[in-house]
């Protein structure tokens, strides 16, 4: 019998119980299976796949089709986690009708259980429309990677009192519109604590301190697979990149030196071919 999948209600209950919520990104079937084995309750199919999997400089080129395919693969691999799929750039900014259409695709074709979108006041109508239609929505405030060019880079956001008040109002508005949780990315720890205390829904932090109800990390950062750059807010919980490079080098060496495959790994017909 299949294990019960985590629901948005389960996530809310974790906040009420004072239990921290671990969340991680995944982009394919194999990584999703490993996440499920580790009993991570929430998986984000992030548009960060544009950088981690497709090699783009930012998340902007990612399409709804990219997200649908990745989400479907992750859902097949992770059978117990709540799967949240990112809505990519320009898949919801035109308004509620566009948001409903593309979120519907992520649920119907990508089989995700929820979607995530960036923004505050500008996306409230879209969040409300999706909630009314029965689509679970996670918000995202602070550093919003889809607005990286407008923001001027990937720095800490909401550093002034005025900006902090605006972010808090956006968070409250997202909650009122029906969001079941909100990601807080790269905002001051003190502000994250205030927002977390004011909301009845969970906050998921990334680079925003320990006061959030949960934390999310990118798969490649967490496992040491980002060989060129690791954000300050990330931690390598292992150096899988170095292990993989070492294994590949050993394989290549064994092939060149005729040490692989070995005799017992070679198929034989049983007859000598003349």
Would you write up a description of this structure?
This protein has helices at 8-16, 29-37, 49-52, 64-77, 96-108, 124-132, 148-151, 161-177, 189-198, 219-222, 240-256, and strands at 21-25, 42-45, 82-86, 114-116, 136-142, 181-185, 203-206, 214-217. With 274 residues, it is an alpha/beta fold. An 8-stranded parallel β-barrel has the order 1-2-3-4-5-6-7-8, surrounded by 6 helices. The termini are far apart.
Write the layout of secondary structure elements.
Elements (H helix, E strand, L loop, with lengths): L7 H9 L4 E5 L3 H9 L4 E4 L3 H4 L11 H14 L4 E5 L9 H13 L5 E3 L7 H9 L3 E7 L5 H4 L9 H17 L3 E5 L3 H10 L4 E4 L7 E4 L1 H4 L17 H17 L18
Parallel strand pairs: 1-2, 1-8, 2-3, 3-4, 4-5, 5-6, 6-7, 7-8
Helix pairs in contact: 2-4, 4-5, 5-6, 6-8, 8-9
Spans of at least 5 consecutive residues whose pLDDT stays below 50 are: none
Q: Quick one: biggest sheet?
A: 8 strands, parallel, barrel
- N-C termini distance: 55 Å
> Mean pLDDT score, rounded?
95
SS content category: alpha/beta
H and E string? HEHEHHEHEHEHHEHEEHH
User: What count of domains describes the coordinates?
Assistant: 1
What would the CATH topology be?
TIM Barrel
Q: What's the architecture in CATH terms?
A: Alpha-Beta Barrel
Strand content: 5-15%
CATH superfamily: Phosphoenolpyruvate-binding domains
What's this, in brief?
The protein is of the alpha/beta class and 274 residues long. Helix content is 40%, strand content 14%. The chain has a single domain (8-239), classed as TIM Barrel, CATH 3.20.20.60.
């Amino acid at each position: 019998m299949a294990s019960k999948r985590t629901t948005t209600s389960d996530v809310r209950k974790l906040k009420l119980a004072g239990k921290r919520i671990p969340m991680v990104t995944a982009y394919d079937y194999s990584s999703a299976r490993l996440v499920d084995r580790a009993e991570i309750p929430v998986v984000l199919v992030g548009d960060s796949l544009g950088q981690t999997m497709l090699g783009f400089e930012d998340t902007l080129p990612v399409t709804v089709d990219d997200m649908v395919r990745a989400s479907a693969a992750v859902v097949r691999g992770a059978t117990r986690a709540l799967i949240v799929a990112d809505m990519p750039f320009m898949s919801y900014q035109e308004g509620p009708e566009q948001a409903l259409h593309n979120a519907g695709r992520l649920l119907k074709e990508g089989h995700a259980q929820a979607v995530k979108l960036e923004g505050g006041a500008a996306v409230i109508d879209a969040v409300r429309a999706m909630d009314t239609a029965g689509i679970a929505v996670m918000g995202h405030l602070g550093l919003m990677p889809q607005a990286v060019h407008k923001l001027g880079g990937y720095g800490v956001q909401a550093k002034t009192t005025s900006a902090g008040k605006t972010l808090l109002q956006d968070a409250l508005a997202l909650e009122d519109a029906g969001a079941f949780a909100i990601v807080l990315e790269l905002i001051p720890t003190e502000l994250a604590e205030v927002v977390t205390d004011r909301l009845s829904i969970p906050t998921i932090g990334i680079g925003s301190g320990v006061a959030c109800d949960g934390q999310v990390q990118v798969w490649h950062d967490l496992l040491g697979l980002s060989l060129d750059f690791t954000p300050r807010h990330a931690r390598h919980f292992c150096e899988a990149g170095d292990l993989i490079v070492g294994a590949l080098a050993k394989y290549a060496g064994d092939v060149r030196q005729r040490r692989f495959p070995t005799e017992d790994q070679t198929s034989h017909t049983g007859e000598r071919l003349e």
